[in-house]
Amino acid sequence: MPHVIIECSKRDLVKNCDQLLLNINQALLDTKEFVAADIKSHCYVPDYVLSGLDESQDAFISISLKIMPGRNDVVQKDMAERILSAVRAELSNNDGKNVQIMVEVTELNVKQYHKITV
């Protein structure tokens, strides 16, 4: 843990997805809350996306950060702000249109989370 899931409404919203993932992982590592090997992140563009009622609405990047419980609101907010900064630094021009960037931090239910390494 943590797991970072980034959904972009358009393929060209970020300059370099590999660099974005590296920057986010580094930002989370910098919090001293995690070790590098535990940070899992991925970025993708869903096949079907709609913001509002038509394609003229803002593009968006939705980020889900899933963490184990035990970190207070201040630490969680810091993580979200670090992720926002990392994403903003990798944004493409997007033809001058607005891009909404959202981060949701979710604590996992320890009783319902299972992991094995094989």
UniProtKB/TrEMBL annotation:
SUPFAM superfamilies: Tautomerase/MIF. It comes from the Bacteria. Gene3D superfamilies: Macrophage Migration Inhibitory Factor. Pfam families: CHMI. InterPro entries: 5-COMe_2-OHmuconate_Isoase (IPR004220), Tautomerase/MIF_sf (IPR014347). PANTHER family: 4-HYDROXYPHENYLACETATE CATABOLISM PROTEIN (PTHR37950). This is 5-carboxymethyl-2-hydroxymuconate isomerase. It comes from Wohlfahrtiimonas larvae.
